[in-house]
Batch of 2 targets.
Target 1
Amino acid sequence: MTDQPKRPDKRPDTRLVHGGRRAEWLGGMVNVPVSRTSTVLFEDVASMEAAYPPRDGTLSYGRNGTPTQWSLAEALTELEPGAAGTRLFPSGAAAVSFALASVLDPGDELLMVDSAYLPTRTFCDQGLKRYGIATRYYDPRATAAEVEALLSDSTKAIFMESPGSLTFEVQDVPGICAVARQRGIATLLDNTWATPLFFQALPRGIDLSILACTKYVSGHADVMLGSVTTTEAHWEKLNRTARLYGQSVSPDDSYLAARGLRTMGVRLRRHEDSAIKIARWLQGQPRVADVLHPALKACPGHHFWKRDFTGSSGLFAIVLKDADEAAAVRFVESLGLFGIGYSWGGFESLALPVHPERARSFKRDWPGAMVRLHIGLEDPDDLVADLAGAFQAIA
Ligand SMILES: Cc1ncc(COP(=O)(O)O)c(C=O)c1O
C-alpha cells in the first residue's frame, strides 16, 4: 500500500482507532470483517489479468490478501508518519528474517546489535551465513561514532533493537541512523517493545521498522504475526522479497491483531504504569541487585529513552542478588499470578529465568541470576504481593 497515511494530522491514539477502516472495506460495520478466500472470481479474463502484479486494495488471489489483511497493514502504516507501506508476516521472526533478506545480498556485511532477540541472532549466524552474508556484532551501549568506526565498504545494513532483549539497553537510534544515511546504509529496528505508539521509528531515521505483532499489537496471547513498515525507498524490495518466498498471513489472525490494535493505547499505558510501580518497588527489595528497565536512571541508554520515547511498556528484568540459577528457578516457580512461559505482550503477567551471557559477544558481569518479568493487566498491588511471597520463598 503506497498511499500515504490518511490521518497524519491526528494524534497516535486516534490513528490506532481509525486506521485502516476504509468505508469500502467495512461495508457498514465497525470492524473490517474476516474475508477468507483462496480463489478470486473475475468477470472476464481482462479483469483477471489486470489484477497483476498484485497490489493491496485489488483482489487477485488469496495469498495476496483480502481487505482483512490490507486494513491491518494500512492501520500499522498510519502509525509511522512518512511510511510507504506495511507488509505482514506469519510471525515476528519471519518479519525480521525477510526484512534483512530484502536489504542484503551475498558479499554484504550486516552490523547487528549484540542484544538482539536470540532467534534474530541465530538467523544471522545460520541463515544469512549460508547466503554469504557476514554478520558483525556491536555493543548495544556503543555510541553512534563507535558504530560508525565499525563500518566497512561492504556494510549494507545496521540492525537495532532498542531496548535490547533481556538486558534492555536503549540505543541512540537517531544518531546511528544519521551515520548510516550519509553512507546509504539501510537501518532496521525491532520496535516490538515500544511499538510505534511509544517510539515512532521512521521519523527518527529508521528505514524498516519491525514488529512482532504477536506481542502488544495482538495483546491477548492468541496470535502469531509480524509486520515490517518501510520508507518509500525500501518498499518495493521488501514486497518483492516477501512475494518471492510466498509469505502470506491468514485473515483470521489479521482480524484478531486489528482488534487488539484498537485498544493498544489503553493497554500499553496500564502495562506502563504497573511496570514502573513494580520496578520501583523491586529497587527497594534487599534480594534485588539491579532492575533493568529503560525508564529507570541506572539503565544504560536511559537518556536516549527520555529523549526519544513517549512511554515504556511492561517488560523488564531483575538481577537477584547473590542468587544462583536454582534460586532464580525457585523464585519463578514460587509466583502464583505470573505464568511461566516464553513471549510477552499479552494481558497476563509472566516470569522466566533468562541467560543473556549464553549468547553474547559483549559480556556484562551480573551479580546474580536474572529473571525477566512481563507485567500484565492485573491489579499491581496483587502482583507486588505475589513477588513479595516469592522473595520469602528464596530467603
Ligand atoms: C523482541 C522480539 N522480536 C521478535 C520476536 C519474534 O516474534 P514471534 O514470536 O512472533 O516470532 C520476539 C518474540 O519473543 C521478541 O521478543
Note: The chain has 15 helices and twelve strands.
Target 2
Amino acid sequence: MPEVAEVQAHAERLDRDFAGLTLAKFQALKFTALRTVAPAPDAAYGEPLERVGRRGKYLLLEFASVTFAVHLMQGGRLLVDAKKSLKARAGQARFVFAPDTVPALLLTEQGTERKAGVWALDPATALSTPPLDTLGPEAWGITPDALLERFALKNQRLHGFLRDQRMLAGLGRLLANEICHRARLSPFAMTGSLGPPGAATVAAAIDACITEGLAYERSRPDMSSSKDRPSAVHNRTGEVCPVCADTVRAIEYVGYTVNYCPTCQTGGKVLADNTTSKFLK
Ligand SMILES: [Zn+2]
C-alpha cells in the first residue's frame, strides 16, 4: 500500500503538472467510486485545481468549492490519462480537465477489492469530515513530545501503534517495520513503557525512514510498487540484516507480516506471538 512517502511525492508530481487546470468533469466509472453525495462534484466544474495536497495516505485535490480526497488503498493508482478511453482498464473514476488537449487523471484499482475511492468534501470542513476526521497527527514531522502524548493514549505494541491511522497518519506496513528496525526496538515494545527517551528515538526513526523513502520516491517519474521500495527488513524474511548481518525474521499475520532483526531489535530473541492468533487481525 502506498504510504506517506509515496503519496507525498505523488501529490508533488500532480501539483506540478495539474495545478491551475480547470475541472471539466468528474466521471465515476464504477458506481462505488464516489463515496459521498454532497457536495456534488459538479460544484467544482469550471474551477481551477488550486493545489494537490495530502493528509495521511489521502491525496487531496483542492478546488474552491470541493476538496476531493482520494484513497488508493492497496492496489489503487491515480494515473495521468492522456487517452481518456471509455473502457479504461481497472478504471474507477476520472478527473477531466479543460481544454480537451490536456490529460485527465484516472483512478485505477487492480484486483477486485474495490476499496479505493473518492470523497467529495466541503473545503471549509474537509479535515473534520469523514474519512479525514479520525486521522491522528501527521507522522511526518512529529516531535518527540507530541509522540509521547500519542503513546499515552493507549498502551499497545509499537508496530500496531505505528500502523493505526487514528494514532498517527501516513504510516503502513513497510514503514512500521522499517521504523522499529531503525529505532532498534522490538515491534512488540509497549508504547506505555517507552518514555521520553523512547519517544525521541522513535520520532527520529520516523523522520529518517520517511526522509529516505521520500528521496527515493521523488527520484521516480511515477509511484513505485512496494517491491521497488528501499527497505532494510520489510519483505526481507531470511535475508541478511544490512546493519548487523543477522537473519531477518518474520511473524505472519493475516494481511501483513512483521519483519525484524533479532540482534538489532530484541537482544537476539526470536519472537513468538503467543497473545494473538495468527488467524485473527
Ligand atoms: Zn540487525
Note: The mean pLDDT is 94.
